[in-house]
Batch of 2 targets.
Target 1
Amino acid sequence: MDQFLAFTVVGLSTAAIYAVIGSGLVLTHTTAGVFNFAHGAAGMLAAFSYWQLAVGWEWPVPLALATVLLVLAPAFGLFVERVLMRPVQALGEAERLVMTVALLTGCIALARWVWDPNTARPLAPFFADRSAIRLGPASMTWHQAVTMAVAVAVAAALWFLLHRTRAGTEMRASVDDRALAGLTGADPLRAGRLAWTLGIQLAAVGGILIAPTVALDAQQLSLLIVSAYTAAVFGRLRSLPLTFLGAVVVGLLEAYLAGYLPRNDFLPGLRLAAPALLLLLALLAFPHRRLRGRDRRLVRVPLPTARGSLVFAGSVVLLAVVLVTVLTEDAIISYGAVFSLGVIALSFVPLAGFTGQISLCQLSIAGIGAVVWGHLGAHGELWALPVAVLIAAGVGALVALPALRLSGVYLALGTAAFAVILDRWVFTLPAFDVFGVRVTLFDQGSVPVTGPDLFGWHLTSPTQLLLLAAVLLALASLAVAALRRGRIGRRLIALRDSEAAFATLGGRLLGAKVAVFALSAGLAGLGGALYGMQLQTVTAEQFNLVAGLPIFLIAVIGGLGAVGTGLFAGLAFVVPTQLFAELGSWAHDLSTLLIALAGMGLAHSPAGVAPRMHAEWAKLARDRTLFRALLGVLALCWLLAATNAVNGGLALVAALVAALSLNARASARRQPAPDIPVEWWGLRRPWKPEDGEVLSRATAAS
Amino acid sequence: MGAIGGPLLELSGVRAAYDGITVLHGVDLTVDAGQVVALLGPNGAGKTTTLNVAAGVHPPSAGRLNLGGRDVSGARAGDLARSGVCLIPEGRGVFPNLSVRDNLWMMTFTGRTREEIEDAAYARFPVLGDRRTQAAGTLSGGEQQMLALARGLTTDPAVLLLDELSMGLAPLVVADLYERVADIAREGVAVLIVEQFAAAVLKIADHAAVLARGRIPWQGPPDRSLHAELSSYYLGSAP
Ligand SMILES: Nc1ncnc2c1ncn2[C@@H]1O[C@H](COP(=O)(O)OP(=O)(O)OP(=O)(O)O)[C@@H](O)[C@H]1O
Ligand SMILES: [Mg+2]
C-alpha cells in the first residue's frame, strides 16, 4: 500500500507536467489553429537555456527563470509567429503542420549543435534543500508540490483566458475565419502573436519542470511530449478539463507500469512505448474534426507527360552511371544513398501528394524492409526482395486501418505514434515466435545486410549497389508517374480533395486507402532494403522517427505531388551531408539544421521545388539545338572527369556553368511568345494549360 | 419608403483586379441612408468583389470609396468595420467552432455590452436564444444566416452589405430575413444587397443596379423595365 501511494505521488507529479504541456498544446491549437509538433522541442530548448544560465553561467535561479520565461520564450514565440507561421497562414493545415515539423527538427539539431550531447548536464530540482512533505505513509518533494501547484494555476488561468475574456474569444475566432474576424474589428495578427507567445511560454514552463527528473537530452526531451500529446488528445485538443484528466490518466499509468510491470526482455520497451500506444488509442477513441471554416486551399498536383517521365527515368540512370565513373570508391558508398533514400522519399508521393495522407512513419517501414531483407536474403536470395516489399506493404495496410478514422494532423500524429512504438518497443524486442514462425527484427543489435544475386551475379560492390538502386528508383518513378496519369491517380486526388465527394462518386474509401498505404509502404520497404544493402549493417536507430523527419521535410520541399521529388530528396539529403561531413562530425547537425531552415521556406513555393525546377528547365529541353549543345557539354565534362584529365570538382563546376548559361539563353529565346496573336495560340506555339482561363477572363472582361 | 439622408456609401470609378486580371471596370454606385439598393447580375459579374471593395476586404486598383462624404479608399477592413461598415459575406458568415454566444460576443467591438447584444439578437431571432451554447457550425443554414445577420442588427452599422443572404434557404425563410433587413433600413441604415434571384429582394428594394462583366450598364427603380433588362443579361442577349 505504501508503495502504491509512493507511485501515485510520482504519477501525479508527472501528470502535472503533462497537464502544463498539454494545455500549452490546446492553447496553440485553439488560438493559432496549429497542432504544434515542436511544442516539446521548444520546452527542451528552454530547459537547455535554463541550464546554461543557472548552472553553466551560475546565475541566481530567479534571474535565470525570469530570463527564460519572460524574455527568451516570448521572443522565440514571436519569432515563430512572424517567420514561420504568418507566411503559411493562408496556405493550409498541412503546410502549417510541416512548419512545426521543420521547427522540431531544427530545434533538436540546434540543441545538439550548441550543447554537445556527450556531456552530462545535471539539473537540480527546485527547493532540493528542503525536506520532503510527509503525507501519511508517502512523501512528496517540494519540486513535486511546486509542479502540481503550477499545473493547477496554469489550467485555471488558461480556462479563464479562453472562455471568459474577449481576447481569448478573438483568438479562437481568428483561427476559424481570419477574414471574418477582421470584419468584426478584431486584429488577427495581434491574436496570433499573443497565442504564440503564451504557447511557447507554457512549453518553457513544462520543459524546465520536467528536465530535473530526466536526463537533459535533446531528442528524449522533445519526444517526452508524446505523453502530453496524449493528454491533449483526451481533451480533443480543445477542452482543458479533459486534457487535465488525460494527463492524470497518463501520468498514473506510466508510474504504475514503471512500478509493477514484471521485468523480462520483452516488457521494458513496452513501458517506454506505453505513452505512444495510449496516444494511438486515444486518437482512435476520441476522433475529432474541426468544423471547417471557409478558407481551405489545395496545391495542384502536377501531371507528368509520358515522354517527360521517360526522360526523367533515363536521366536518373545516366546520373548514376556518371557518378560511378567519376567518383572514388569511398564516395560511391556515401552517394549510393541518393538513390535508395530517393525511393523512400518517393513513397511519400502517392500517399501524401496524391491522396493527402500525411504519414510520418515511412522510414520506420523502410526499416522493416531492411531487416526482412537482411534476414531472409542473408545470402542474396533474390526472392527475398519481393517478400520484403510485400511484408512492408502489409505493415502499411495495417497502418491504413486506423488511418480510416483519422485525417490531417491526427493522422500525422497517429503515424508518429506508430513510429515511436516501433522504435521503443518492437525494434528492441529479442527474437520471438508468432504462431510457430520465428520473428527476428534487429535482435537487440545490428543486422548484417548484403546485396542480391541477380542472374548469377552477386551484387556487393558499392558501384553495383548504386546502379541497382538507381535503376529501381527510375522504375519506381516511372510507375508512380503512370499511376498519376491513369484513372487511379485522378481518383486518389479526388479522394484528397474531398472524401465525401469521392464516396458519392462510387469510390470505396477503405479499399482505396488500404491500397495506397500498402503501395507506398511497399516502396518504402524497397527503399529500406536498398539503403540497408548500401549500409551493410543496419541498426534500429537508423530508422527511428527523428531520423525520418528530415526525409519527410525534404520531400515536402521537393513537392509531395511531383514524381521528381524522389531524386530531388535523395540529392538534397545526401549531398550537403557529404559536403559537411568533410568538415568534421559536428557538421552533421548543421546539415539537419539547414534542411529544417529550408523547410521553413516552404511558403515561397508551396507546390515544391521540383515542379518549379521542371518549369524553369522545360524550355531548354524543348529547344532542340540548345538541348543538343547541353548534352554535348555534359558529355565532354564527364569524359574529362572520367579519364581523370581534369579534376572532378572542376568538371562539375564547368558543367553547371554551361547548363545555367544555356538555360538562360533558352528562356531569352522564348520571350517573344506573348506577341503571338490570340487566334494563333495552339498553332504557332503550344497550347498552355492556363490559356483557356486567360481567354475566358478576357472575353468576360471585354 | 425612400431616402432619409444624403449619400452614405459612394463608389466612384472603382476598378479591381485579381492577380493582374481586372474584374471591375469602373463601377459607380451610391447608397443613401435608409435606402435599400439591390445589386443584381449573373455569376462571375463581380458582385462579391464590389462588396469586398466596399468593406475594405479587397483593395481597389483605381477609383474612390466615400463613406458619409469622407474618402476612405484604402482603409483596412477592421477600421471600416469600426466606422460602421458591416459586411455579411457570401456563405455562412459565422465562426463555426465558436458557440452562438461567443459569436455574438465578437460583435461587441462597437462598444455595446455583451448583454445588450445578446438581448437584441435573441429578441429578433428567438431560435438563437434556444441554441446559445451550440457551436455555430452545427446550426442549420437558416439559423447560421440569422446569426450572421445578427451582426448587422446589433452593431448599429451605418452601411450594411449583404452577399447572397438567400443562398441555400427556403423561400419562406428568405422572405422573413428580408423583412428584418427592411426594418434595419427603416432605422436609417444604407443597405446594399447582392442577389442572384431578384424576386425576394425587389420587394424591399428602393433602387436596383445591374452588374454585368464588371460594369453597371443599367440602374433605376425596380419595376418592369428592370425585369426585361435582367433577363437579357442573364440570358446573354444584351449587347
Ligand atoms: N480570389 C480570386 N482570385 C482570382 N479571381 C477571382 C477571385 N475571386 C473572384 N475572382 C474572379 O473575379 C470575377 C468576379 O467574381 P465575383 O466573386 O465578384 O463574382 P460574383 O458576381 O459574386 O459571382 P457569383 O454570383 O457567382 O457569386 C470572377 O470571374 C472570378 O473568377
Ligand atoms: Mg458572389
Target 2
Amino acid sequence: MQLINKNLYGDYGDKEQAGGSNDGAKHNTASEWPLWEVFIRSKAGLDHKHAGSLHAADAEMAIENARDVYTRRMEGVSIWVVESRYIHASDPGESASMYEPANDKIYRHPTFYDLPDELKHM
Amino acid sequence: MTVHSFQEHFDEKIDNEVSIEPRDWMPDDYRKTLIRQISQHAHSEIVGMLPEGNWITRAPSLRRKAVLLAKVQDEGGHGLYLYSAAETLGITRDEMIEQLHSGKAKYSSIFNYPTLTWADMGAIGWLVDGAAIMNQVPLCRTSYGPYARAMVRVCKEESFHQRQGFEIMMTLANGTDVQKKLAQDALNRWWWPSIMMFGPPDDDSPNTAQSMRWRIKRFTNDELRQKFIDVTVEQAKLIGLTVPDPDLKWNEETGHYDYGKINWDEFWNVVKGNGPCNKERLETRRKAWEEGKWVRDAALAYAEKRKARKEKATLAA
Ligand SMILES: [Fe+2]
Ligand SMILES: [Fe+2]
C-alpha cells in the first residue's frame, strides 16, 4: 500500500496551497474575472447563507451579478460577496482530530441530565 | 492514510448517501466524470438559450414576450450555477468555455434543431424542459454536494418553464385550424428528438452502471424515457394533439406505453455535429465570446484602475 498525495480542491479559497488539477494550472487564467462567493440573507432576522459563486471584475459587479443570478425570485433582502481566495477552510482530512474535543462531552447536551418527570418548566 | 483507506472511506460515504464535498478525497475517475457531466449540462443550458432567443422579439403578445424572456434568463442562470459547481472540481470557467467552442465538450443534441414557428416555443417548454425535469429531479440527490445543490435551484425554477410551454400548446390547440396545425406540426418535429434526450438505450450505455454506483445518475436512460413517455402521452391527449408514433400503445401487462423504434442513427449523426443547427449554434457562441472580449478586458482594467486609485487615496489620507 502506497501513500498518496492528498489533493485538495477548493470549494472556496486556499486554491494555491490546494494545488488543484494540473490541467488547470497549465491554463492561463490571467484574463478571467476573479471568483466570488455569494451569501444571501433571505429575510430580515435570518443569517446570510452561502448561495453559490460567480465571476465578476470587482465587488460592485459581483453584487449586481449576484442579484441577477441568485435572487431572480426575491430570494434575498441582503447580499454579501467575498472574493473566494480570501476564504480559508478547514481540512476535511483532519476533521477526526479537529472535532474530537467535542466528541466525549455529552454533558453539554440537556438530555444528559436525568431528572424526575414531575419536574416542570425546565 | 493509504490509497486503500481513502477509497474505502469514499465508498462508505457513497453507500451511506453521505455527500461528497469539494475538498474531500475522491477517485480521479469520479472527478473526471463529474466534470464532463456537469460542464456538458452547463453548456446545454447556455446553448439552449439560442433556439428560444430566436423568438423573443417575435412573441405574439407582451405577456408571452415577458415570460419567454424570463425563461431564457433562467436558463442562463442554470448554466452559471452549473459552471460554478464544475469549478469546485478544479477546472476553470475559461477552460470549459474553450472546450465548448472547440467542440471537445458536448451539449444536449436537442438544441441543434431549428425553431421554425412560434408553436416551437410551446413544444420546447412542454417537451424539452419536461424531459430535462425528468432527468434533473433525481439529480437533486446526487452524491456530489455542489452539483446536488445547483440542481435543487434549477428544478425549482424549471417547473414554470414546462407549464408556460404547455399553456402555449394548449392555447394553439384550442385555436383556429391554422393554429392547431402549427401545434401539431411542432409536436411532430420535437417528439422524437425529445425522447432521444434521455440518451442511448441502456444496452448501448456502458457507463451507466458506474455512474449509478457513484450516485451521479439515479435512473437508467430507458427508465427515464419510459416515465416521460407515459406522462406526456396523457398530456397530449388532454389538448387533443397526436403523438407522432404509430406504434404507441398502452400495455396492460407492463403498465406502460409501448413505443416505436427510435432512429438512433439520427441521434448519433447530430451528436457528431451533423444536425441542422450544430454549426450555427457553435458559431453564435464563439462570436458572442470573441466580440465580448473587449468588455471583459475593459471591466477588469476599470476594476484595477479603481483599486489603484483607492489605494492611493488611502495612502494619502
Ligand atoms: Fe434550465
Ligand atoms: Fe428550462
